[in-house]
Inverse folding.
């Protein structure tokens, strides 16, 4: 596990609480790390001092966490959302016939990926199908206020300006290639593609 304190100019190894590291996400001065340790099994750890010390995060019960994201200021482990009120990961309430593989949230809106498209919820309880997206798997979802982005398993990139209610396909062109990931910051949207990185200020 490496840490940088100068915006990525230099990196130093720090002690990790796990023997196997899965994913890492940082938000609001806190760092979350998934992995496996012999003493506790599969877990997510939380640090409030930039990785100097770690505590187990509640609410996962030995769940394997391969994806850990902090888009929109909310930490999501697979389909469980970190609650600052209870200081634990909470499982969303979904219908029995709706299998969500992963979830994105900004605390106000939830987008859930299934192997037959994307579903949206404003409360984590009632879910509606996003009809403007195809009936395929979307491994990458991001929602941040009115902006939302979706990347399907073929690298097709879609954008929403109404918080994920409707999406439109965005053509990246031959130079852009296929989309792999997307990051939303206060100043720009950055897309990782098969040919490099693309940045948008609007």
């Amino acid at each position: 596990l490496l840490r940088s304190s100068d915006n990525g100019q230099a990196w130093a190894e720090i002690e990790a609480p796990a023997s196997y590291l899965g994913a890492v996400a940082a938000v609001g001065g806190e760092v979350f790390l998934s992995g496996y340790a012999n003493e506790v099994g599969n877990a997510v750890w939380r640090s409030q001092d930039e990785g100097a010390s770690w505590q187990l995060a509640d609410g996962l019960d030995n769940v394997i966490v391969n994806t850990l994201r902090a888009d929109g200021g909310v930490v999501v482990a697979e389909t469980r959302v970190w609650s600052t009120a209870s200081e634990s990961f909470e499982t969303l309430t979904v219908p029995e016939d709706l299998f969500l593989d992963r979830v994105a949230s900004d605390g106000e809106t939830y987008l859930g990926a299934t192997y037959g498209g994307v579903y949206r919820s404003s409360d984590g309880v009632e879910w509606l199908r996003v009809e403007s997206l195809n009936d395929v798997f979307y491994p990458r979802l991001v929602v941040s206020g009115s902006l939302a982005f979706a990347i399907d398993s073929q690298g097709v990139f879609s954008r929403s300006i109404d918080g994920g209610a409707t999406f439109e396909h965005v053509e990246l062109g031959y130079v852009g290639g296929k989309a792999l990931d997307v990051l939303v910051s206060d100043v720009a949207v950055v897309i990782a593609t098969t040919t490099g990185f693309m940045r948008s200020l609007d």
